[in-house]
Amino acid sequence: MHEAIFNEKNEVLANAFAAGLLMPAEAVKAEVKKNTSTDSIGYGALVALARMFEVSLSACIYRLLNLNIIEKNEAEKLL
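Predicted structure:
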């Protein structure tokens, strides 16, 4: 039981580290600001952002969610 919790926490930390490495917060925020004209990011802009940072669409969505760029309900719709 404790090992499972430990492994889960390590996986969360590893994912957060990878996200920060592959999609640095300031770079992501700058690209979103540059390429969106409203408060929400469109699907096309989302795909372009994922391609730019060479990550999967789902990884991009989770990163935007963790950076508070998109809301949870918006992320759930996109996933």
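Summary: The two ends are 30 Å apart (CA to CA).
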